[in-house]
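Appendix C reproduces, verbatim, an entry submitted by the partner laboratory led by Prof. M.T., so that reviewers can inspect both the input and the predicted structure.
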Amino acid sequence: MTTADAHTPVISIRERYRDVVSEKWPVIVTPQLDELLSSWLHRLAYANGIAPRPFARVLGLHAGMWSASLDLKLPVDIENLLRAYTGISPHWLSAMMLTRSSLKPLLLPLRSSGRRDGSTWLQFCSRCLAEDAQPYFRRRWRLATQVSCVTHRCGLRDRCPSCHSRIAAFDQTELVPQHYCVHCGFDLRRASKVPMSPPAMQLDRCINDICRLETMTGSLRSGMLVQCLLRMPSITDSFPTASLSSLSTSMRIRCVERLADRPTDWLTADDDAVAAHWRRSVLDAGGYGPLISQRADALELKRQRKVPIKHRTPTVALSALLGTYVRMMEGPRHRPFRNRDWTSG
C-alpha cells in the first residue's frame, strides 16, 4: 500500500496488472480536448490503479521517457493493445499524437541539456490544470513558440516551481495524479501565475495564430516561417547562437517580451506575397480572431450600403455569424472531444 497524500490511501497493482484484467481494462478514460497521448496514458494508468513507470511494462516497454516518445511515434503493437483493452478508435489515438504536424521542427526536444536556461520537453499553465476536472497536459504546450496561456493571460512554466525539476510523470513510481511533481511532490496547480506584458501576450498569440493559419492553408511547407521562428533568440541579440527550441520557457518569454517592442518585419518578410500579407494582417489586428471580426464587420457594412432599406429583410448579422464561428474554432471547454489541429487554442 502506498499513499498519494496523508489522507488518501491507495492500492498499487503494478506489474501483475495484465494478468488480472479481462477483455477490457476496468476503467476507460476519455481523451480531453487537445490532450497529449502521454497525458492520456498517465491518466489511464492512474485510473486503473497502476503508476506510470510500471505501466510501461504493461505496454511491453522499458522505463525512461516511454510515454513522451509515444507522442511522436506509436508502434503498431502498442496501438493494437490500447485499442483492444480500451476500445479507443485509431482516430482518437491519432488526434492525440504529434506525428503529422508540419510544426514538428518547433517541438521542444525530449532530451534536456540539464542547464537552467535550457529547454525541457513540456510546459504547463497552472490555472488550466487547476480548472480541469481531471488535470491533463495539452499538445500545444509542446511547442517552443507557445509561451503563454491566452485563457488566463499568463506565461507558461516548464519546471516545478518548488524543486525546479522538469515534468516527469512518466517516471512516477507511486500512484499519484500526473500534476504532482515526481521529485518533490509539489502540486503544479498551486504554482503562481507567470506575468507577461500585454504586448508580449499579443505577439505570442499572433505568432501561434499565424502558425495555425499557415498549417491549415499548407503554406507552412516551405519552411521559411519555421526557420524564422527558430531564429527568434538571435533577432533579440540576447542568444545569438541559440535556437528557440533549445531555451527554457522563461528565456523564450524574455525573447518575446523584447520582440514585442520592435518592428515585426522579421516575421512578415517572405517570398510568398500572400503569406506575408496575411501575417501582416494578423499582426495588425492583434490575432486571427480579431482579424475575422474586422473583416466580418467590413463585409456587413458593405452589404448594408448595397441593399436599399425598403428591400431589407430580417437576417442574422454576418459579423455575429462569423463571430460564432471564431468562438467555435477556439474550442469552448464544454464541447466534446474532436479531432482538430493541435496548434489551436
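Residues 198-285 form one domain. Additional entries are available on request from the coordinating office.
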